[in-house]
């Protein structure tokens, strides 16, 4: 054995000056308990390996003192590292190695790792008894450490600041605390006493007991929590195969939308009651503080510690360079002592090698703290966004119709509240701690610069202070521009949404270019504001990047002039590191200011939205509580607590005077002195002087002409209108309501789900309802029967089918009051009669339910118990038929005439409107399993290179190359500047006493230096290179701005142009929310985020290369550890990106159902409210939010996993660079300036590499949005070839239509809907088409427009094959009046003539022909009167009349009427038929029959069956054949 080692083991404790030391024996004895822990760990490891493996994760609970135990263990690790360092220094300063000074500490370090690992394994494995082994260990090692402290005190080492003495005290105290924790656990749980006495273990958290919950972050140990170690298995799975939504499991309950909605809603209500509704924005901020404040404080604490640790780097650089300078001085004659010399704190802190370890530990701690802070604010930001979105949805369910139709807000704005405003609040949460940490960082950095450089630093600080207001001004301007951008985005999305909603009409009228140009116009305004914002952003970037450079230049230039001291390497590069630290808050502050301004704007918008008018009283809830709502005239915004736990937030639109009324037992609803309006500001009520008593259990009819107020009356009863005067009261019992709107609202779900509407299945009742609504034949032909997916807005069903499903929903419900808004108009006679007799009279009347029916079927009036006759917004007459006949004989006679006509004409509307999309026509649009909607496209694997090239070409490939070259030039100037500073400071250091070799490495060694004291020489060079950096920064930023602007513009235009040319099949099978997501969220990402992300990745890539090259030039030995570490970096980013890209794709996909369900419910608010189904819809929406939050949470937690690892490995790079340069300087006389340069770049390379990998992942995530937009630029479009035949100028002049052996289908993979159809319609003929549901009527008319695939046969118009005519040219020469009326937001003039090609007189003539001249002339603005979104400020019948006027105005030779008068009363229908006959006397009119009486005098009748022509001829010919199908239809009517 070595003599020195033997000597060190012979401990003689005679005095303090003895060669042996009083810690020798305790140190060596402490190896025994350390070895004991190693033995326990070995046994435990063998046992673990031998046990049966299980893939299931058993739930666990933390033992007492869990967190404290981990903190003490980390403290022990730190203390043992200090002990090892102090021991190594002591041993190096002595003649003997004295192994006892460091070997036991090394063993203690290892034992601490093992002990905490054992504890974690036993805790997560729910094993308590093995903890006794740790109790033995704490007792043994703690006692020995206490003995060592006692011996050192006894030997006289307590008075001096020896590292070893104080470290030993801390270690002993830590072991005592660990022993106390273990004893407490033993005494409280008695786990060693057997099952009879032991206290049962605590139950695991409820979240862990749910096996589907796999997000373990809140439940793991502190080390796993800050390093995200638990995530390894998940990312390993993502590396092996693409992740799926099912792999994500569930989140803990604290992240659920319902929980955050409840917490945020209750806090908002609390603060609103405190401050009143005048301060909704303030209340919202206060709610955030109440719910999430303390967690943000914890995040800010972590961030504060991490920010302070950032300053350790510059301090270490200064001290290490000083250490190098001292090492270059000639050594003095120092005698190496034989005895042990303990190290003081001062000596310990000056050692360069200790400083490298301190640098490593500080960087590791900083990384863990900062990423923990990022995780906390990210987590709470997601929670806040989810809670806000749930609140927006809940508020939307209560939003009054007046708010949406009265001009106070639009659908696009409400959608933006959900997506953009809530997202801005989340972004603010992400950056919130920079609001205080950035200023603190600036102040601390400036103080340290002052302490290092003196008054020269004040000049630099002054420059920063002078530029700060400029930055603030620019940031505020960017904030205002962001607000303006949001407003312009609102308009663009509103127009996009409107276009997508009405795409079929737009295509039929060949208006794609008109609406595309409108959206492009809105886009140009949006891009104009964005461009201004980009330019301000470049100015901010220029000032942000230029300020530290100018400050450095000014400070270094003045330092020697002011102090008359040379600028040494230590001061130069520690200051440079501080200036690098300053760059982050200077760059972040403008961004944070912008984010803050965005959040303030969004918060104000949300606050205003949350106090927007609601339905006129929360009577849905009040009816459920057997109360009656008395609605007052005055309006105040008031917050009431909700009785429904699902809805913690209730914001009333009016002050409710709620009283309980015991109405007459025979009265279901009572209206007294009622006046109602849609708009709150309206001075002219829509309905006035209403006194109504709806009898209970009876059938009430509401009749009247178009626009008389029938539907408005129903909406007033439902609380959808604003009460001006009077009250609406429901009976104290039997007051639940079911409602079937005039325009059916259906869910994108199965047909069965639409009928059940949340009610439990009662098969007998369900079958009875199906029979009563004549839906069984439809179920028989649907591919999946009742399970058939009917598509968004019921796109898979015909108009009549949709109406019958809507009525079936009302019949199936058990509501006491059933309100039906003109359901029979959309049905043929047979079906309508069956529905009325079996459904309304049969089911409803038999059950004693109150029925309110709006109808034009006057022949049914004798069956009414009460008739309300509406005229000009008033009840002109009410009573039984007999009472009205006595009160108004003239009206009664008029009714008799009309119902006689109806009885003559009622036709088989089975073939009629019972199918707007025809039929089988639409039925066959589905796949065999009944699904219609396509799955959202999702790429897998790496983002393809062609996606990046798409962005480059969209931005301009030449400009992209120029931008890249500018970044290369920028980095070249920056590296040259830093080498110049190294040369400058090394020259100064040589004057300061360091003995350097004259041939030390210098980048500028070839240059002739005028003299090391020539400050002007170095200053001019430094200033010139700094100027190059600033100039190339500006040029590069401007070039990238231009590239991003061009790409955003070109990509949106390409997507828009392609989408408007897509076939209708695409819109039928793609949810509107999915398409809107491309135009909103994905477009916003490309507009505002992708450009900066690409700039970041280019910049950080070049910075990484520069940092590695500089370190390699300075110290080639750096490459030995650096190359494998860099290789590991690239493996890490590849490993991470495999999961991150799929998570990003899943997150993008999960957004679509949120938007789709939100836009869907916006169209059916009155239906949802009438059924009191808000709770169920809220729950479904919250489930969609949970899916989005889940993907976002996993994605951002995975980012933290990556960030921690990259920072940890980066810390190792810094350690390797510091150690290699330190050794090179000590052993090879490396210049101090190059040591400082190496350390500064090494310190930055960690951040650069981290940003590089993060930026790669970030760009790939952002490119996913580009990928999705690119997909929509490649969607197959309709044939775009132009006209290939010569068309006469007035084509078609005759209007002759010849169909030859035509076969059509909706898609190539679907069955034909028309087969071998041949028919001739002569010019000027009036043609009626009839047939049963699914016969192909609408398909035939659509084939004329080439809206579907005419895969066989030909259609000729005036002897011209339409397949050789361009779609625009063809469709512009035809006119159609569709079944569903479509109006656009704008003016009446725009709706009639969007091309602005007609004179006012022509517009008035068209309105007169459509019976609308009186209505429009009564409006204050006439033709320029506003039409609200969807035409909601006009009745359905009036909307249909506007569509008729629009068709009259086109004056084409061929007019198709697709059951266009279904929503009109008989009188108006008769007038319009006459108008059509007159206006189109010389034109071809093709009518899909609604009422057979209207086509009996037509020239030509075509009867279809199963897609084939079965009868073709004049009405007289077909009627003469008593066996003809047409005769049967007429007889049936």
TrEMBL record:
<keyword id="KW-0325">Glycoprotein</keyword>
<feature type="transmembrane region" description="Helical">
    <location>
        <begin position="162"/>
        <end position="181"/>
    </location>
</feature>
<feature type="transmembrane region" description="Helical">
    <location>
        <begin position="1234"/>
        <end position="1253"/>
    </location>
</feature>
<keyword id="KW-0813">Transport</keyword>
<feature type="transmembrane region" description="Helical">
    <location>
        <begin position="1118"/>
        <end position="1136"/>
    </location>
</feature>
<feature type="transmembrane region" description="Helical">
    <location>
        <begin position="576"/>
        <end position="597"/>
    </location>
</feature>
<dbReference type="GO" id="GO:0008559">
    <property type="term" value="F:ABC-type xenobiotic transporter activity"/>
</dbReference>
<feature type="transmembrane region" description="Helical">
    <location>
        <begin position="1208"/>
        <end position="1228"/>
    </location>
</feature>
<feature type="transmembrane region" description="Helical">
    <location>
        <begin position="353"/>
        <end position="377"/>
    </location>
</feature>
<dbReference type="GO" id="GO:0016887">
    <property type="term" value="F:ATP hydrolysis activity"/>
</dbReference>
<feature type="transmembrane region" description="Helical">
    <location>
        <begin position="32"/>
        <end position="50"/>
    </location>
</feature>
<dbReference type="Pfam" id="PF00664">
    <property type="entry name" value="ABC_membrane"/>
</dbReference>
<feature type="transmembrane region" description="Helical">
    <location>
        <begin position="428"/>
        <end position="451"/>
    </location>
</feature>
<feature type="compositionally biased region" description="Acidic residues">
    <location>
        <begin position="898"/>
        <end position="909"/>
    </location>
</feature>
<dbReference type="InterPro" id="IPR000388">
    <property type="entry name" value="ABCC8/9"/>
</dbReference>
<dbReference type="InterPro" id="IPR003593">
    <property type="entry name" value="AAA+_ATPase"/>
</dbReference>
<dbReference type="InterPro" id="IPR050173">
    <property type="entry name" value="ABC_transporter_C-like"/>
</dbReference>
<dbReference type="InterPro" id="IPR036640">
    <property type="entry name" value="ABC1_TM_sf"/>
</dbReference>
<feature type="region of interest" description="Disordered">
    <location>
        <begin position="896"/>
        <end position="935"/>
    </location>
</feature>
<dbReference type="GO" id="GO:0015431">
    <property type="term" value="F:ABC-type glutathione S-conjugate transporter activity"/>
</dbReference>
<dbReference type="InterPro" id="IPR027417">
    <property type="entry name" value="P-loop_NTPase"/>
</dbReference>
<feature type="domain" description="AAA+ ATPase">
    <location>
        <begin position="696"/>
        <end position="882"/>
    </location>
</feature>
<feature type="transmembrane region" description="Helical">
    <location>
        <begin position="101"/>
        <end position="122"/>
    </location>
</feature>
<keyword id="KW-0677">Repeat</keyword>
<dbReference type="GO" id="GO:0006813">
    <property type="term" value="P:potassium ion transport"/>
</dbReference>
<feature type="transmembrane region" description="Helical">
    <location>
        <begin position="284"/>
        <end position="305"/>
    </location>
</feature>
<feature type="transmembrane region" description="Helical">
    <location>
        <begin position="533"/>
        <end position="556"/>
    </location>
</feature>
<keyword id="KW-0472">Membrane</keyword>
<feature type="transmembrane region" description="Helical">
    <location>
        <begin position="948"/>
        <end position="970"/>
    </location>
</feature>
<dbReference type="GO" id="GO:0016323">
    <property type="term" value="C:basolateral plasma membrane"/>
</dbReference>
<feature type="domain" description="AAA+ ATPase">
    <location>
        <begin position="1323"/>
        <end position="1508"/>
    </location>
</feature>
<feature type="transmembrane region" description="Helical">
    <location>
        <begin position="129"/>
        <end position="150"/>
    </location>
</feature>
<protein>
    <submittedName>
        <fullName>ABCC9 protein</fullName>
    </submittedName>
</protein>
<dbReference type="InterPro" id="IPR011527">
    <property type="entry name" value="ABC1_TM_dom"/>
</dbReference>
<dbReference type="InterPro" id="IPR003439">
    <property type="entry name" value="ABC_transporter-like_ATP-bd"/>
</dbReference>
<feature type="compositionally biased region" description="Basic and acidic residues">
    <location>
        <begin position="910"/>
        <end position="935"/>
    </location>
</feature>
<feature type="transmembrane region" description="Helical">
    <location>
        <begin position="1017"/>
        <end position="1045"/>
    </location>
</feature>
<dbReference type="Pfam" id="PF00005">
    <property type="entry name" value="ABC_tran"/>
</dbReference>
<dbReference type="GO" id="GO:0008281">
    <property type="term" value="F:sulfonylurea receptor activity"/>
</dbReference>
<keyword id="KW-0547">Nucleotide-binding</keyword>
<keyword id="KW-0812">Transmembrane</keyword>
<feature type="transmembrane region" description="Helical">
    <location>
        <begin position="457"/>
        <end position="475"/>
    </location>
</feature>
């Amino acid at each position: 054995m070595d003599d020195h080692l033997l000597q060190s083991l012979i401990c003689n404790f005679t005095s303090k000056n003895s060669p042996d030391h009083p810690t020798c024996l305790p140190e060596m004895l402490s190896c025994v308990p350390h070895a004991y822990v190693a033995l326990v760990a070995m046994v435990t490891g063998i046992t673990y390996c031998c046990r049966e493996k299980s893939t299931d994760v058993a739930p666990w609970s933390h033992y007492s003192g869990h967190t404290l135990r981990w903190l003490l263990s980390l403290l022990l690790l730190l203390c043992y590292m200090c002990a090892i360092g102090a021991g190594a220094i002591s041993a190096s300063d002595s003649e003997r190695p004295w192994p006892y000074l460091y070997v036991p500490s090394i063993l203690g370090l290892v034992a601490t790792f093992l002990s905490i690992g054992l504890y974690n394994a036993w805790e997560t494995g729910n094993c308590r008894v093995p903890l006794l082994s740790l109790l033995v260990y704490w007792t043994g090692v703690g006692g020995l450490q206490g003995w060592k402290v006692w011996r050192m005190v006894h030997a006289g080492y307590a008075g001096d600041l020896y590292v070893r003495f104080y470290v030993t005290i801390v270690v002993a105290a830590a072991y005592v605390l660990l022993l106390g924790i273990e004893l407490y656990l033993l005494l409280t749980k008695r786990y060693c006493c057997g099952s009879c006495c032991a206290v049962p273990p605590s139950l695991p958290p409820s979240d862990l007991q749910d096996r589907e919950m796999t997000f373990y972050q809140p439940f793991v140990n502190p080390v796993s929590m800050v390093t995200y170690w638990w995530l390894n298995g998940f990312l390993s799975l993502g590396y092996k195969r693409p992740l799926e939504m099912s792999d994500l499991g569930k989140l803990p309950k604290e992240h659920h939308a319902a929980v955050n909605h409840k917490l945020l809603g209750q806090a908002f209500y609390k603060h609103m009651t405190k401050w009143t509704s005048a301060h909704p924005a303030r209340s919202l901020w206060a709610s955030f503080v109440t719910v999430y404040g303390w967690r943000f404080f914890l995040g800010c604490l972590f961030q504060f510690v991490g920010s302070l640790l950032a300053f350790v780097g510059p301090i270490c650089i200064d001290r290490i360079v000083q250490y190098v300078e001292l090492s270059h001085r000639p050594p003095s004659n120092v005698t190496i002592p034989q005895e042990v010399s303990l190290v003081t704190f001062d000596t310990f802190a000056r050692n360069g090698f200790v400083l490298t370890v301190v640098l490593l530990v500080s960087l590791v701690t900083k990384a863990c703290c900062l990423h923990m802070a990022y995780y906390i604010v990210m987590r709470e930001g997601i929670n806040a966004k989810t809670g806000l979105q749930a609140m927006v949805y809940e508020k939307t369910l209560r939003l009054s119709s007046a708010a949406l139709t009265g001009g106070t807000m639009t659908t696009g704005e409400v959608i933006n509240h959900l997506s953009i405003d809530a997202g801005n609040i989340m972004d603010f949460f992400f950056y919130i701690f920079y609001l205080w940490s950035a200023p603190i960082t600036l102040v601390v950095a400036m103080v340290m610069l002052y302490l290092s450089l003196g008054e020269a630093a004040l000049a630099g600080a002054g420059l920063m202070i002078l530029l700060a207001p400029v930055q603030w001004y620019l940031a505020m301007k960017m904030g205002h521009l962001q607000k303006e951008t949001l407003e312009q985005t609102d308009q663009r999305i509103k127009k996009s949404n409107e276009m997508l909603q009405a795409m079929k009409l737009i295509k039929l009228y060949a208006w794609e270019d008109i609406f595309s140009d409108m959206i492009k116009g809105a886009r140009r305004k949006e891009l104009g504001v964005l461009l201004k914002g980009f330019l301000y952003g470049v100015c901010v970037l220029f000032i942000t990047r230029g300020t530290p450079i100018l400050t450095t230049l000014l400070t270094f230039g003045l330092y020697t002039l002011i102090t008359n001291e040379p600028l040494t390497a230590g001061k130069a590069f520690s200051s440079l590191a501080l200036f690098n630290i300053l760059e982050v808050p200077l760059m972040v502050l403008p961004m944070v200011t912008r984010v803050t301004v965005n959040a303030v704007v969004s918060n104000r918008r949300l606050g205003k939205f949350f106090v927007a008018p609601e339905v006129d009283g929360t009577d849905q809830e009040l009816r459920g509580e057997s109360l009656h709502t008395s609605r007052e005239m005055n309006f105040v915004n008031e917050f009431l607590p909700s009785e429904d736990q699902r809805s913690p937030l209730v914001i009333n639109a009016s002050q409710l005077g709620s009283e309980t009324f015991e109405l007459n037992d025979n009265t279901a609803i009572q209206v007294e002195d009622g006046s109602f309006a849609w708009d709150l500001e309206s001075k002219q009520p829509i309905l006035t002087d209403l006194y109504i008593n709806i009898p209970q259990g009876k059938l009430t009819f509401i009749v009247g002409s178009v626009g008389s107020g029938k539907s408005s009356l129903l909406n007033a009863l439902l609380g959808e209108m604003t009460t001006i005067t009077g009250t609406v009261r429901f009976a104290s019992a039997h007051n639940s309501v079911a409602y079937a709107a005039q325009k059916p609202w259906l869910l994108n779900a199965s047909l069965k789900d639409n009928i059940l509407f949340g009610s439990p299945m009662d098969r007998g009742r369900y079958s009875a309802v199906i029979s009563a609504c004549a839906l069984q034949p439809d179920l028989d032909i649907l591919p999946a029967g009742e399970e058939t997916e009917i598509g968004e807005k019921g796109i898979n069903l015909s108009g009549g089918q949709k109406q019958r499903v809507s009525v079936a929903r009302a019949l199936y419900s058990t509501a006491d009051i059933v309100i039906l808004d003109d359901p029979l108009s959309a049905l043929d006679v047979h079906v309508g009669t069956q529905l009325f007799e079996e459904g309304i009279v049969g089911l409803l009347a038999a059950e004693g339910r109150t029925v309110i029916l709006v109808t034009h079927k006057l022949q049914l009036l004798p069956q009414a118990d009460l008739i309300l006759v509406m005229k000009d917004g008033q009840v002109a007459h009410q009573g039984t038929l007999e009472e009205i006949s006595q009160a108004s004989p003239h009206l009664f006679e008029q009714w008799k005439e009309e119902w006689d006509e109806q009885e003559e004409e009622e036709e088989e509307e089975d073939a009629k409107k019972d199918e707007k999309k025809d039929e089988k026509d639409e039925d066959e649009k589905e796949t065999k399993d009944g699904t219609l909607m396509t799955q959202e496209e999702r790429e897998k694997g790496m983002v393809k290179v062609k996606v990046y090239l798409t962005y480059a070409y969209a931005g301009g490939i030449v400009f992209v190359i120029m931008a890249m070259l500018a970044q290369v030039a920028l980095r070249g100037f920056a590296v040259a500047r830093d080498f110049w500073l190294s040369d400058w400071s090394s020259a100064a250091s040589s004057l300061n006493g360091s003995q350097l070799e004259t041939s030390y490495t210098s980048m500028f060694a070839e240059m002739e230096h005028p003299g090391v004291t020539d400050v002007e020489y170095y200053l001019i060079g430094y200033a010139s290179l700094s100027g190059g950096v600033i100039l190339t920064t500006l040029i590069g930023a401007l070039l990238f701005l231009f590239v991003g602007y061009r790409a955003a513009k070109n990509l949106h235009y390409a997507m828009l142009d392609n989408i408007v040319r897509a076939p209708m099949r695409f819109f039928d099978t793609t949810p509107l929310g999915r398409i809107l997501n491309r135009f909103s969220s994905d477009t916003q990402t490309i507009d505002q985020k992708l450009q900066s992300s690409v700039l970041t990745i280019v910049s950080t890539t070049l910075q990484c290369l520069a940092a590695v090259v500089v370190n390699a030039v300075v110290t080639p030995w750096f490459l030995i550890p650096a190359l494998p570490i860099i290789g590991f970096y690239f493996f890490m980013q590849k490993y991470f990106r495999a999961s991150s890209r799929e998570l990003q794709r899943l997150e993008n996909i999960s957004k679509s159902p949120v938007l789709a369900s939100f836009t869907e419910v916006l169209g059916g608010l009155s239906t949802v409210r009438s059924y009191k189904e808000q709770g169920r819809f809220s729950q479904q929406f919250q489930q969609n939010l949970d899916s989005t939050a889940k993907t976002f949470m996993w994605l951002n937690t995975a980012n933290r996993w990556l960030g921690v690892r990259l920072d940890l490995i980066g810390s190792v790079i810094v350690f390797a660079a510091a150690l290699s340069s330190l050794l090179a300087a000590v052993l090879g006389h490396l210049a101090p300036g190059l040591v400082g340069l190496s350390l500064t770049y090494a310190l930055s390379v960690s951040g650069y590499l981290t940003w590089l990998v993060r930026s790669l992942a970030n760009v790939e995530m952002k490119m996913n949005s580009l990928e999705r937009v690119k997909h929509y630029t490649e969607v197959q479009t309709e044939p775009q070839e132009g006209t290939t035949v010569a068309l006469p100028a007035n084509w078609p002049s005759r209007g002759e239509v010849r169909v030859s052996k035509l076969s059509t289908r909706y898609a190539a993979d679907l069955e034909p809907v028309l087969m071998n159809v041949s028919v001739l319609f002569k010019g000027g003929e009036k043609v009626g088409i009839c047939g049963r549901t699914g016969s192909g009527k609408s398909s035939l008319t659509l084939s004329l427009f080439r809206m579907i695939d005419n895969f066989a046969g030909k259609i000729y118009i005036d002897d011209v094959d339409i397949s050789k005519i361009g779609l625009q040219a063809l469709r512009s020469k035809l006119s159609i009046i569709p079944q569903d009326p479509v109006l656009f937001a704008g003016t009446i003039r725009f709706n009639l003539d969007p091309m602005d090609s007609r004179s006012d007189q022509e517009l008035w003539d068209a309105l007169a022909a459509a019976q609308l001249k009186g209505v429009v002339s009564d409006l204050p603005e006439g033709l320029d009167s506003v039409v609200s979104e969807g035409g909601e400020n006009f009745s359905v019948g009036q909307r249909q009349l506007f569509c008729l006027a629009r068709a009259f105005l086109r004056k084409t030779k061929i007019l198709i009427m697709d059951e266009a008068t279904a929503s009109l009363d008989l009188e108006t229908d008769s007038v319009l038929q006459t108008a059509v006959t007159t206006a189109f006397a010389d034109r071809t009119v093709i009518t899909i029959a609604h009422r057979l009486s209207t086509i009996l005098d037509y020239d030509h009748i075509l009867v279809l069956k199963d897609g084939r022509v079965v009868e073709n001829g004049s009405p007289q010919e077909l009627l003469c054949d008593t066996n003809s199908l047409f005769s049967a239809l007429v007889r049936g009517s």
